[in-house]
Design goal:
binds S-adenosyl-L-homocysteine; about 35% helix; about 475 residues; 5-stranded mixed barrel; alpha/beta; binds iron/sulfur cluster; binds FE3-S4 cluster; 6-stranded parallel beta sheet; 15 helices
């Protein structure tokens, strides 16, 4: 981050020539689809545009600049963008009639995958920008003043992280006590179903120093919990200031020293990159939450091989045993795909069996969606939609049972809860358990950002209800 960005972040610069407040304020509406990294990127786009005089709005109709930060992971995700763009075209025309200009930006993974095609399908789009070049948005907006259809889907040599602005402390406070921080991006794994290596590019890790600076800034703004993001976050291999290599475990140890940071999470991991140092960190590092999202996709060796997942079913079960030995109270979550080309009933049963054996606290599951340009899309043995639907239903029924059982087990126990926001009803507050369960309780918002002890009194499929317990002595209540 440059000195100027630092100063802006601290709210010390109020209007150098040509920036922010000297221009008339314009309104920015950003909508994000897909994964948490897209949420992070959307925040960063807003941060970059703030000094350009764009104030964020949640009212679409008043926006002068609309950014759709898109996802290409499944067909439905990509198609959603085009139906949204259809609506935006009408909005843009209506605003133009009222003499107001609207610029529409398509960012994210659809932008990267489809590029110029988007202009052909929807003429109302002004700018297309990929996930690795959005730091150039101010410049692209300038270009869009004079030329139509501005495109930037480069994978530039410079890292966008060296060009991102930080939000001001007031802005950080508005965003809450829990924050995402991208530490690694891109993927070299090339699972045969997946578009990510094409849309996000090759695997890159941010240097430790930049991440520490970002986390320190977040902590100064009241953030207590950071979730470290990467498409393959456990493949993180950054560099320290001295040029020494740093693993994810080393990064976590460094971030645990940042005053104010009480909880650290990381997502998403590939089973093949669960190394010994990370497993040890789950044993030794109290700030590292006992919850691990470890996608397995399938429980069948044939399908895992056809997916190019690079590990067997037994390897996954062994990783889980090792992690549980290091941290017995750890809860696991995963991603599953049903109906991958060639998946037989027996393959599917093997997935159900793996779920029975491992027991997951939470999971995301999807019907296989053939993505253009990926090897699996070319396979002849595509599975009929009805079979996929039936398998997904059975899989989700089992996973839902496991989630309910996991939540139910909490009743009568005390959990440490990070208070994040007002609750659903008057007089209630809401927070998250170490296992990412949303928890509601009676209490005062004075406790925002505190980690409190809560006795769980009831549970639903997705959230828990609890009762505040007296605080522990300060020495023990650090996390
Ligand atoms: N990097 C992570 C996952 C990123 S994508 C990993 O290695 O597991 C998030 C999830 O979307 C994947 O875990 C997978 O379950 C799902 N997914 C990816 N491509 C898909 C496709 N073509 N069809 C259906 N689901 C898909
Ligand atoms: Fe996609 Fe596989 Fe990379 Fe995950 S590891 S992002 S599923 S290619
Ligand atoms: Fe979607 Fe791109 Fe994330 S395809 S899941 S937004 S990396």
């Amino acid at each position: 981050m440059s000195g100027l960005d630092q100063a802006r972040a601290a709210g010390e610069v109020s209007g150098e020539p040509g920036s922010g407040p000297t221009k008339s304020p314009r309104r920015l509406f950003v909508k994000s689809y897909g994964c948490q990294m897209n949420v992070y990127d959307a925040r960063k786009m807003a941060d970059i545009l703030a000094p350009e005089g764009y104030a964020e709005t949640t009212v679409l109709e008043e926006a002068d600049l609309i950014v759709l930060n898109t996802c290409h992971i499944r067909e439905r995700a990509a198609e959603k963008v085009f139906s949204e763009l259809g609506k935006l075209r009408a909005l843009k025309a209506a605003r133009a009639e009222a003499g107001r200009e609207t610029k529409i930006v398509v960012a994210g993974c659809v932008a990267q995958a489809e590029g110029e095609e988007i202009f052909k399908r929807q003429k109302a789009v002004d700018i297309i920008v990929g996930p690795q070049s959005y730091h150039r948005l101010p410049e692209l907006l300038q270009r869009a003043q004079t030329s139509r259809a501005v495109l930037d889907t480069d994978f530039p040599a410079e890292s966008k992280f060296d060009h991102l602005a930080a939000p001001g402390l007031t802005e950080i406070r508005k965003r809450g006590v829990s924050a995402f921080v991208t530490v690694q991006e891109g993927c070299d794994k090339f699972c045969t179903f997946c578009v990510v290596p094409y849309t996000r590019g090759a695997e890159v890790s941010r240097p430790v120093e930049g991440i520490v600076a970002e986390v320190e800034m977040l902590a100064a703004g009241g953030v207590r919990e950071v979730s470290l993001l990467g498409q393959n976050v456990n493949a993180y291999h950054g560099e320290t200031r001295e040029g020494a290599p740093a693993s994810l475990a080393a990064l976590i140890a460094r971030l645990a020293e940042v005053p104010g940071i009480a909880r650290i999470r990381y997502t998403t991991s590939h089973p093949g990159d669960m190394d010994a140092s990370l497993i040890q960190a789950h044993r030794d590092q109290p700030a590292l939450m006992p919850f691990l999202h470890l996608p397995v996709q399938s429980g069948s060796d044939q399908i895992l091989a056809a997916m190019n997942r690079r590990h067997k079913r037994s390897d996954y079960i062994a990783f889980v045993a090792e992690i549980r030995a290091a941290r017995p109270d750890i809860a696991l979550s995963s991603d599953f795909i049903v109906g991958f080309p060639g998946e037989t009933d027996a393959d599917f049963e093997a997935t159900l069996d793996l779920i029975e054996k491992v027991e997951f606290a939470n999971a995301f599951s999807f019907k296989y969606s053939a993505r253009p340009g990926t090897p699996a899309a070319e396979l002849q043995s595509q599975i009929p939609e009805a079979v996929k639907s039936e398998r997904l239903f059975r899989l989700q029924t089992l996973l839902d049972q496991q989630r309910r059982a996991f939540n139910h087990k909490m009743i009568g126990h005390a959990l440490d809860v990070l208070i994040e926001k007002p609750g659903r009803h008057q007089g209630q507050i809401a927070g998250k358990s170490p296992y990412l369960q949303p928890i509601q309780m009676e209490g005062s918002l004075d406790r925002l950002g505190d980690i409190v002890r809560v006795e769980i009194v009831s549970s639903g499929s997705n959230s828990l209800f609890g009762r505040l317990l007296p605080d522990r002595p300060a020495r023990e209540a650090l996390r």
